[in-house]
## 1
Amino acid sequence: MGDSKTVSQHAANSSSADDNLPPTVSDYDLTRVIGEGGFGQVWLATNRATGHLRAVKVIPLHRSGATDPAGREITSITRLEANLRSQHPNLLNIHHVGMTDECLFYVMDLADDVSGGPVSSGSASSQSSYRPATLQSRLEGGPLPPDVCCRCARQLLAGLASLHQAGMVHRDVKPANCLFVDGQLKLADFGLVAEADPQVSRVGTLKYMPPDGRMDARADVYAVGLVIYEMITGLPVESFPRPGDGAEEAVDSAILGTLNRVVLRACEPDPQRRFRDAREMLSGIQRSESRDADRRARPRRWVIGLATCAVVAGLAATAFWISRPSRVYINFVTDPFEATIYLDDELLVDEQGNPYTTPCTVEDLPARVCRVVFKHDDKRKDLDMGPQDLAKQTRIEAHWDSQP
């Protein structure tokens, strides 16, 4: 149920021979259009036998030009059926695929109403006002609460990971293609699903595509990173990586701090520095959460140990220093971006020897006081932040004046 602003999807929609009449498909009465895609439409539909409401996507078979969208949809759905051993709870369920002389159609679960509940099959008024609950519609109200951000990110990555594990890529991950069914986020719109291959054609929604142009699993990871960024900040994807008005909350929130680090890695311009696939990205969230929980628990363990083992003051001091983490992560952000980072006069580089440039998250740093300096390559004066205790913060931010 994506929007129409997609690459290679500029042809005009055509739902039937007569635009004033809904298409005719077996077993369902189509009521009204509830979603538009580049080559098809999604209709609110009622099963004639049971009265249950479903969503039905309709793609015309006959079009002017050489494009064959129905053929591509059939190929994608066939891949899903062949490679997915079982239906994943975070992928939109397709109940039936059919064809008439005029169109290909397939029947799907109906998303919740944007108001938060399911649409009533017996209420004509609720059907007439029904609007699908998508992540895109949720974001119209601004950033999501931290716990909702984390839950949605996990569910989105779980569904995408099932595709990646089956050797497929989605190629059009975006908020409009994330639906809520019974409150659960489900990844939808499988018309561009393809086998994972770096040389697969560059299609999808341009603003969610990585700059390197490779449409593999890392491209899906890049898109998910941008989607999570939108959930955290409430800003449009074009604003990435600007932190927005909730920057202070993100620093103070362990959940948002975790997601922020994951986003920065997922959206690295260099594909080799991103997560390999959605499974590794999901594991990155879980590891980071575990590490943060461990850091928060250490002072409590020290207090308990002090109460039970306070024999001499020296033991208490020893317990304190043992409780301090030995390695930490830091988010580095500058305005303008693309600054290099020096700790105690040494350039920070990744495992391949490439310099980190802001904004970025650097992990496994020493939990001690270091002198931090930012350098820019456009003749701006170095920004010397002075001594910074890395054990007491997760973000170091700096701003150059307007004059170089």
## 2
Amino acid sequence: MKFISTRDPENQVNFERAVLNSMPSDGGLYIPAESPDLRRWILYTNSKTSFQNLAGTLTSACINDEFSPIICETIATKAFTFEPKLTKYTDRFFTLELFNTPTGSHKEFGISFLVNSLETILQMKGGSALFVDVTVGELGASLARALRGKRHLKALLIYPKGMIRGLSENDYVWNGGNVYPVEIDGDEKYCHEIARKIFEKRDLVEKKHITLANTANIGRLMPQMFFYPFAFSRLKEFINSDIFYAITPGNYSNLVAGLYAWRLSLPVNGFICPATKELTVDAMGQCSVLDDMVPFQKRAPADAASPSNLERLEDVFHNSSLMLKNLVYPSAVTDSESEEACRRLFMKHKIFADRAASQAYAAALKQRELTGDDEAAVVLVMRDHPSYDSEWIQHAVGAAPQMPENISEALQGVKLGRPLLQTAEDVLKILEEF
């Protein structure tokens, strides 16, 4: 599989270049240039197909022109010591939990896959790479965990003042680890401004082989495609009808990944999500992407520091507009409807659902014309452990989930004991000397 830029289809690279470079120089985002037809293989999977095996096979199918099946299987085996969980509640309602990870965050799937892919590439080809990312917690904790023991990768993590969490003394570069945390005298927005200035310096980015661990990097997004074939491998034992996934848009990464899985011939009838100001419905009640009216080439470069996958979503719409109007179903959801959905999930199924999952479930309830008149199955995608959002859940249902010890450790505050940095120049100086 080759990858092209959303801004220029002629800007084509292989997987290695896409994950090492992370963002094209033309200001766009890398996307798959083609999609193999994997219907026969997807239909062959079943509940005995592990997530590791599924991920290794799909990785090989996507990048078999670069790596052998054995190498792809090795990447998946090292990356995924955990897997999603599909739970059946009724004949037509299921949940897909993505938070069964060491930090309780769905981000860990993408981060672990990206880190192990890059480490494998650099072991084979030589060289090193450096992640530079802004984080307020779980991304940093996940990345630090994934980097432990890696020889070719390090990370410079930019934190707002007082927000360093989930790191251990052994993770620090000055103690022989792979993480260089820097604490900024400012908020998250200011940290993003600093990161943007770094990635604007293309010479430095190329010289230091600086890349990203957020979803601007296609290597971080790619494994999110695996969630849906995994869910189908379990669903097929229970149903023989339409399948709809109810998901929150977030930064649109899971929705885009679902659509990429559909391009691989995943059996799916639709994705239901809460409407946003960018992803909404038109006068005919069909899915509409408002930014779609502005050509990519007339926009500012994609944001490396705080990415949105909206541009990737728009690219799918450009190429399959008519089909996607019958595949993505946004619904406007109010705060009170989200809280009512949270209560309903708790009272009916004993499910603690955070705000995002509750919004997605509320959207599914408003799409009964899709799911209520036949035997269609709805799969509620739950991204992060509900204890991350315990205060909101407590307000909605009068009870809150207990936070597991591993998540508590990932959120544990850390005192760095080093001077606060003030400017982008301070961070750039560290990078030059790294």
## 3
Amino acid sequence: MPTRTPPTLQSLPARERILQTAHTLFYREGIRATGIDRVIAESGVTKVTFYRHFPSKNDLILAFLDYRHQRWMAWFTDALQRYGGNAGALVPALAEWLGSESFRGCAFINSVGELGPSLPGVVEMAQRHKQDMMAAIANVLVPSEQREADAQAIALAVDGAIIRVQMDAKPDAALQSLNRVMQALLNN
């Protein structure tokens, strides 16, 4: 998901400043590595203001994941349409995100890896995100009896591609493999 130039942070309401700051820091540096004091300092709010909006770090984490989900899904569905609105749109759409300077993997996979069962809401949010991603993939596939099964397999391959790019630092090999998996699935 390429980054957009955000409005000036200070012009936003306090809750939005906190959420955007947390989004940037949690995604770039990790949830556990980012303390509340840093979010407060970088968002330019007081502790009282922060805790009025987010009574705990866990509340902020769940709000961050919901915010990320809304933003990423809006970008993803738009990108699929911009690249043709069919199965062939998936790889170029993902190339846009996987090749962006700000790419740090999937916030949901990363969050489950960091927090997993210690915060069950994270797992629930990740499951919802992956279900919605799979539905968006299904929407660009040709209707067939195996459409849902194909979407599920492609979504799994997308997750694999995301992880591969985190290790390789360049998306080329992951995108080529994803394209090959899609061709094998959809040309049968």
